[in-house]
Automatic annotation (TrEMBL):
GO terms for biological process: lipid metabolic process. The chain crosses the membrane at residues 139-158, 164-182, 242-261, 282-300, 306-325. The gene is CYB5R. It comes from Ceratitis capitata. This is Cytochrome b5-related protein. It holds the Pfam family Cyt-b5. Keywords: Heme, Iron, Membrane, Metal-binding, Transmembrane, Transmembrane helix. The lineage of its organism: Eukaryota, Metazoa, Ecdysozoa, Arthropoda, Hexapoda. Belongs to the cytochrome b5 family. GO terms for molecular function: heme binding; metal ion binding.
């Protein structure tokens, strides 16, 4: 099969088939992966085919991960989600045969490569690390969650715009902090993510399994779901000149509507059987319920108040999230020249720029997607303990010629917009002048 030049991926031998569909959804991404991944209807890890059917219910991380990933290549997801040695030892029990065809992903995870060297050092470090910041993360999460309801009710009772803005801000930050929790084994805090009108199950696919594993590539659902409206891939085949400039002008409106739009599209896709709705999709209703019960607003005004809170949260979430770490002309995107060393961990480093202005504040890191490189490399670790891993990260980056880049929010905002306009791929690979 001949792949058109612009469709050639820097991390795989195939152009992902989900991108050929007019409907970009989490379910479509999984179906496309089942079609592309040469996993023979089971689970693929490196060149082995595994049958985890009997393990799904026993999986300590929860049933979701294995149920949803059946029929796909889970090599990188498996490696990134298990720092301890135990899960790796379990694998041989479930192996059924060698795969018939080579892996489509060209990123590597060699034992002496960057990622596995770093992970071994982290595994050792975790034995002596101070875990108390995890309790602070839990406290921050709970305080923000409570603030949503307190300020939402106060905004109605006092008719206060300040309280309305605070309720929206609390909702935005709760959503981001809850993301710290849905990457891990099932826990109650991940449900708070859904107050935003989005759904953590959908995000476990689009964010944890797609974006985290294949950032800034054709396989990254968090790129494709915005196209052609926002397109960060430097590729004129995907973004027209008109769309490039139009998206920048109209983005404030899109930012404010992003949360409600996700809910509406998910409901429409569900009616077409292209999406699943869960019982926990109804959790956001707890906000208008609290307003209605504890104030004297009518039902119509309650719903209006809720919509305003959600739109403020949506706007703030997009300003933070879309300008958090991934889009700048200096950062690798699909089509750019890539470094010779194809290590998966170095690929993560090359697709991220950290927000240096957040460092040192656990609150800011948790509420603004901070310490992003370490979070991508070890998504199951609490953000509170990540700072203790920097000495190991720097040491390992030096050894493998990787570079941790940093910038502040303003620089990132400007860089993200320059990336929206960029259509020419970078010809100099990351690490070339190191
Ligand atoms: C798509 C693939 C998979 C994903 C995304 C995934 C995800 C997870 C997550 C999020 C946790 C909880 C980590 C935490 O909260 O600290 C976990 C734990 C665990 N998983 Fe998986 N998993 C996957 C596949 C597997 C497979 C194939 C096995 C078995 C061979 C496995 C065995 C385990 C074990 C034993 C634990 C407990 C580890 C511990 O407590 O140290 N997982 N997994």
């Amino acid at each position: 099969m001949v792949i058109e030049t612009w469709k050639k991926s820097g991390i795989a031998t195939k152009f992902p088939s989900y991108r050929n569909s007019s409907l970009i959804t989490a379910k479509g991404w999984l179906l496309g992966k089942q079609n592309d991944d040469e996993a023979e209807g089971l689970w693929r890890i490196y060149d082995g085919i595994y049958d985890f059917t009997d393990f799904i219910k026993k999986h300590p991380g929860g049933e979701f991960w294995l149920t949803e990933s059946k029929g796909t290549d889970i090599t990188e997801a498996f490696e990134a989600h298990h720092i301890a040695i135990g899960p790796h030892k379990l694998l041989s029990k479930y192996k059924v045969r060698d795969a018939k065809h080579p892996r489509i992903y060209t990123l590597t995870l060699h034992e002496d490569g960057f990622y596995k060297t770093l992970r071994e050092r982290v595994r050792e470090k975790l034995k002596t690390i101070d875990k108390s910041p995890q309790r602070k993360s839990d406290l921050i999460h709970f305080s923000l969650l409570a603030s949503i309801f307190i300020f939402a009710v106060l905004s109605a009772r006092l008719n206060s715009l300040v309280c309305l803005a605070l309720a929206g801000t609390a909702l935005c930050w709760t959503t981001i902090v809850s993301h710290n929790y849905f990457h891990r084994r099932d826990n109650w805090r991940m449900y708070a993510f859904n107050l935003s009108l989005m759904n953590f199950c959908s995000w476990r696919v689009s964010h944890a399994l797609s974006h985290h594993i294949y950032p800034n590539s054709y396989f990254d659902l968090e790129l494709s779901m915005f196209e052609p409206y926002f397109c960060w891939v430097p590729n004129p085949h995907i973004k027209s000149k008109l769309m490039r400039y139009l998206s920048i002008i109209t983005e404030p409106v899109f930012y404010a509507l992003a949360f409600p739009l996700q809910k509406i599209t998910r409901i429409i896709f569900s009616l077409r059987h292209d999406n699943v709705m869960y019982w926990h999709d109804s959790l956001p209703l707890s906000i208008p319920l609290a307003i209605f019960l504890f104030s004297d607003l009518s039902l119509f005004l309650t719903l209006r108040q809720w919509l305003f809170i959600t739109m403020i949260a949506s706007f703030a979430f997009c300003v933070i999230g879309l300008n958090a770490a991934h889009h700048d002309p200096e950062i690798y995107h699909e089509g750019d020249a890539h470094r010779e060393d194809r290590d998966w961990g170095l690929f993560q480093v090359d697709t991220i720029i950290d927000r240096g202005d957040l460092k040192g504040s656990q609150f800011l890191v948790l509420t603004h997607f901070g310490d992003h490189i370490l979070h991508h490399l070890f998504p199951t670790l609490d953000h509170g303990i990540l700072p203790q891993l920097y000495p190991i990260l720097y040491e390992t980056l030096d050894q493998f010629k990787g570079k941790l880049r940093e910038c502040n929010h303003l620089v990132h905002l400007l860089g993200q917009h320059r990336q929206l306009l960029r259509t020419e791929p970078n010809t100099k690979p990351p690490g070339a002048d190191d």
